[in-house]
């Protein structure tokens, strides 16, 4: 049976019922695609609903402040997505309409080839194959391709193959009336869901797979070997010492600058890669006469894409505000929830629960 038709038939029986699939609104679809970058559906779903409730149109999102968007995004990680989302919303408003060609969609901040194809095909029915991790896996296994998916050659190979498989109403054995949605839209969603539900990264359900007979990896017992990915990331450790300062119901935080992790997010006083005793740091940096410092957490491990963070958390209680660098601000502890913080800090604050 035809590869595309098999996937379409599987999809109509097994496809996921997701709220952004109940609309052709490009704003809602674009929002879902940005949220689901590096995020599983079950986690991203609630965020999508919250964003749609708070900012139901692209104009509303564009009118928000970056701090508001970052705060709503808190917990999803990869915060550059939130900043790009906000910037792109203002691009769209300035344009006067949501872009409806692949070239124009690609010009949006944070939108690459996959996201442009997904938005273009699903929202506008453009004949563009969307190639994400699920698609790489399905194609690599079914067609027995061992070219690494994260190389230039691999990306070209899989993109060309995916585009060649994209059905049209004129495709052999596929009539126009057989499509519930435009061909590219339904097919792209079908192969994505197939990879997420049937042809999963580990323990794929090969025994009930409708493509089993034609699957090269299944026939050659190479399912667990494909797709191939070249190891390129060098993971390094960073040691962070956080000092949460409490002074008469106030605390000090600062906003992280560009060029590093967590750009634009807030955090308590930070010392990185320190070697001194915590009391020595307090005496050196804060120069206050009366203080009490205690250890709250040690060696908290937090894993990022190419960083392993090891964090220590301390509480410094003092009756007088210490002198701090100019980029720190004093806020009531009760107002902390109004500031977007990294997930590492959010988890600490949830456990610590300042008075």
Characterise this structure:
Helix content is about 40%, strand content about 15%. The protein is elongated, with a radius of gyration of 25 Å. It is built from 14 helices and seven strands. By secondary structure, the protein is an alpha+beta fold. The strands form two sheets. The protein has a four-stranded mixed beta sheet with strand order 4-1-6-5, sandwiched between helices. Helix 1 (about 5-15) packs across helix 11 and helix 2 (about 25-35) runs antiparallel to helix 8 (about 115-125).
What kind of sheet is the major sheet? 4 strands, mixed
Rg, rounded, reads: 25 Å
Low-confidence stretches: none
**Annotation field: number of helices:** 14
Oligomeric assembly = single chain
The span between the termini is 65 Å
- Secondary structural class: alpha+beta
Fraction of residues in helix: 40-55%
> What percentage of amino acids are in beta strands?
5-15%
Mean pLDDT across residues: 90
Helices and strands, in order, run as: HHHHHHHHHHHHEEEEHEEEH
Q: Please state the overall shape, judged from the principal axes of the Cα atoms.
A: elongated
**In which order are the strands of the major sheet placed?**
4-1-6-5
Strand runs, count: 7
């Amino acid at each position: 049976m035809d590869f595309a038709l098999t996937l379409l038939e599987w999809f109509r029986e097994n496809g996921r019922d997701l709220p952004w699939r109940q609309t052709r609104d490009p704003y809602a679809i674009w929002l879902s695609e940005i949220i689901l970058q590096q995020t599983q559906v079950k986690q991203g779903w609630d965020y999508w609903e919250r964003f749609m409730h708070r900012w139901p149109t692209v104009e509303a999102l564009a009118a928000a402040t970056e701090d508001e968007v970052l705060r709503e995004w808190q917990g999803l990680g990869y915060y550059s997505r939130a900043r790009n989302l906000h910037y792109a919303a203002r691009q769209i408003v300035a344009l006067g309409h949501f872009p409806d060609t692949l070239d124009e969609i690609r010009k949006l901040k944070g939108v690459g080839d996959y996201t442009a194809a997904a938005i273009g095909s699903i929202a506008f029915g453009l004949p563009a194959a969307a190639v994400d991790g699920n698609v790489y896996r399905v194609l690599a296994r079914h067609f027995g391709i061992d070219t690494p998916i994260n190389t230039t050659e691999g990306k070209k190979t899989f993109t060309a193959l995916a585009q060649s498989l994209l059905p049209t109403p004129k495709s052999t054995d596929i009539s126009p009336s057989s499509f519930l949605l435009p061909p590219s839209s339904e097919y792209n969603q079908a192969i994505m869901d197939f990879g997420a539900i049937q042809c999963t990264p580990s323990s794929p359900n090969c025994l009930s797979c409708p493509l089993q007979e034609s699957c090269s990896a299944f026939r050659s017992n190479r399912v667990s070997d494909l797709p191939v990915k070249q190891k390129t990331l060098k993971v390094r450790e960073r040691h962070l010492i956080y000092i949460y300062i409490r002074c008469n119901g106030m605390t000090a935080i600062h906003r992280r600058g560009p060029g590093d992790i967590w750009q634009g997010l807030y955090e308590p006083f930070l010392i990185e890669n320190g070697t001194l005793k915590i009391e020595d740091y307090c005496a050196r940096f804060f120069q206050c006469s009366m203080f009490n410092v205690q250890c709250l957490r040690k060696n908290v491990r937090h894993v990022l894409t190419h960083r392993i963070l090891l964090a220590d958390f301390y509480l410094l209680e003092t009756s007088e505000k210490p002198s701090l660098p100019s980029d720190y601000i004093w806020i009531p502890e009760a107002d902390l929830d109004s500031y977007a913080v990294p997930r590492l800090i959010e988890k600490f604050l949830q456990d610590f629960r300042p008075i």
